[in-house]
Task: structure prediction
Amino acid sequence: MRLRPANGGKTEEVGMRQRLTWLACSAAVIMLTAIFHTGKVSATAASGFIPTTMAKGANVGAFDVSNRVVLPGTSELEDREVWVSKQKTRGASDLYVQSNVWQPGGTTGWHSHPGHSLIVVTAGTITDYESDDPTCSPKVYTQGMSFVDEGGSHAHVIRNEGTDVAQTIAVQLVPAGGARRIDVATVPANCPISIQ
Result:
């Protein structure tokens, strides 16, 4: 025989409401945690992308190099025809030569580098999206083209949006002993969530 409280079962009803409230709050916390962590993982995760370090030169000393070349057939007074290159570091650096391969649909995930990268596309087509571009417009590079990723405070993602394998060679100069690549936790606010 089961005894019922004199209040007509209201104690059971209150207890049930408390358990349901606790269950609903717990479910909400679990869902928000899952959404937060899923977004975090998917924003930085590379897929269909294989980076390979071909060579690394450690502890390149500080340097200050400047080159100026007057192009053939021009006068040194024609400044617009003078090629100039400058590179200066403070402190030691590590120099990387990196081979990167993307399968069709592959992505690097959003990331940054502490230093700049000189990149040559050796096969296929890649599409670069930059976090500091207000419109997050695609920049498409095909075999034989090259570009510079400035590194530093901006992030980028490079994707293979084509149907053929894509490859690049990158030369990177970064602070000695530091990370070559830094994953970014979220897709930049100016870029659609679909660009990962």
Notes: The first helix runs from residue 10 to 44. The chain has one helix and twelve strands. Residues 45-183 form a domain with the Jelly Rolls fold (CATH 2.60.120.10). The helical segments are 10-44.
